[in-house]
Design goal:
Strand content: under 5%
Number of domains: 1
Keywords: Membrane, Transmembrane, Transmembrane helix
Distance between the termini: 20 Å
């Protein structure tokens, strides 16, 4: 379960990071993202974070699990209040996607925390 949490998080972050990094200017204007470099910096960060999750899945330890859980919970803490506060103004599909994403990231963080056993069977 622990490695699956890392890999599923990476499956979410890498495509979003790539899309934001190479976001077309027309789409950025449509979304209201200005300046364009801000979206590209965010895309680069998400891409780097996603590739770190792929690498961390090979040998998860306490620090990596803490990073995964902390990062996912920070994303949930950023997305969820924004969606709940301005949800009426959002298109219903976008609101559902963002709520589902928050739920999935929260579940992955919780799953990683619950699956991590310090020392594990190999440490005994």
């Amino acid at each position: 379960m622990l490695r699956a949490a890392f890999r599923l998080t990476a499956l979410l972050l890498i495509p979003v990071g790539l899309y934001l990094y190479f976001i077309p200017p027309d789409v950025a204007r449509l979304l209201g993202v200005s300046p364009l470099w801000l979206a590209r910096v965010l895309g680069g960060l998400l891409l780097a974070w996603g590739t770190f999750q792929v690498a961390a899945a090979q040998r998860p330890d306490g620090a990596k699990v803490g990073g995964l859980a902390g990062g996912n919970l920070l994303l949930v803490a950023t997305l969820l209040p924004a969606v709940l506060r301005s949800g009426e103004a959002m298109p219903p599909l976008l609101r559902a996607v963002l709520l589902g994403l928050s739920l999935l990231l929260g579940a992955l963080a919780l799953g990683a925390i619950l699956s991590y056993a310090p020392g594990g069977a190999r440490g005994r």
